Amino acid sequence: MKPVDYILGIDGGGTGCRLSVCDREGRQLALVTGGPANFTTDPDVAIQNILQTMKDAKSRFPKGKLDLASCAAHIGLAGIMQKSDADTVAAALPFADLTVTDDRTTSVAGALGSADGVVVSVGTGSFVAAQRSGSQCFLGGWGLALGDQASGAWLGLEALRRAVLAYEGLAAKTDLTEQLMLDYGGTPLGVLTFTEAAQPADFAAIAPGVIAAARSGDQHGLDLMHEGARYLMLCLQEMKIAKADMVCLTGGIGPHYAAYLDPEVTSRIQPPKGTALDGAVHLAQQLL
């Protein structure tokens, strides 16, 4: 097989990036993971981590076997909000045949393929997308400062806020809030020090504890999961999902909301056909 026959799909977000090297038919030959690649959070770090992941991928092949400059590639990155963002990423990479989009596009392509439906993608960030007759529309995806409601980063940040309120006697103390205060030195000052330097992925690292707390009946954990679910339901209602629409819950956090969504939605939930990385590979194939 000649190097020109390789295609690459890259999926990048606040927690990390993944790169899949495939043949023309989409059969995976190598899978490599790397550091965070959220363009909005830090464009330079995102590009640096993608380049390092590409370097790691080349090391999986005999010298000269994987010529990146002759490969077709699609990159889906969190934080690509406009054409100039995509152009900046493309200019830093060696591919001769390359498309760059935000990670929403690749998530929908991976989850639904060509089918109509709705994707509720909740990981470090969050968005809701509908696809009908090949056309996509989106809600959310604006980052933690403006939105990302229900996301891992949002759950982590909101849990810390509740922990501080509970410390000051302005909210009930629960196992979740007590544990969070202990994790950061026992006072709000420790929480403040953490938040001043924390990135969305750092907040998202707290989310599994929130989810587990809700599962065990912790009131703050339950409140946050229900609040996140209410936001997702608003998005689904705005999308006016049809009876025939499949609903896919994707991302590291998304499936955990299944128990908190309305029954008319949960009855339509189906496993995604693939991941955002699969979507990136699919879109790369279209460049051939």
Topology record:
Layout: E1 7-12, E2 17-22, E3 28-34, H1 43-58, E4 72-77, H2 83-91, E5 97-102, H3 103-112, E6 117-122, E7 126-132, E8 135-140, H4 152-167, H5 175-183, H6 188-197, H7 200-204, H8 207-215, H9 219-239, E9 246-250, H10 263-266, H11 276-285
Parallel strand pairs: 1-4, 4-5, 6-9
Antiparallel strand pairs: 1-2, 2-3, 6-7, 7-8
Written account of the structure:
By secondary structure, the protein is α/β, with parallel strands linked by helices. It has two domains: about 5-110 and about 275-285, Nucleotidyltransferase, domain 5 (2-Layer Sandwich); about 115-270, ATPase, nucleotide binding domain (Nucleotidyltransferase, domain 5, 2-Layer Sandwich). The protein contains eleven helices and nine strands. The chain has helices at about 45-60, 85-90, 105-110, 150-165, 175-185, 190-195, 200-205, 205-215, 220-240, 265, 275-285, and strands at about 5-10, 15-20, 30-35, 70-75, 95-100, 115-120, 125-130, 135-140, 245-250. The strands form two sheets. A five-stranded mixed sheet has the order 3-2-1-4-5, sandwiched between helices. A four-stranded mixed sheet has the order 8-7-6-9, sandwiched between helices. A hairpin with a 4-residue loop joins strand 1 and strand 2. The protein is globular. The two termini are about 15 Å apart. Keywords: Kinase, Transferase. GO terms for molecular function: kinase activity. It comes from Yoonia maricola.
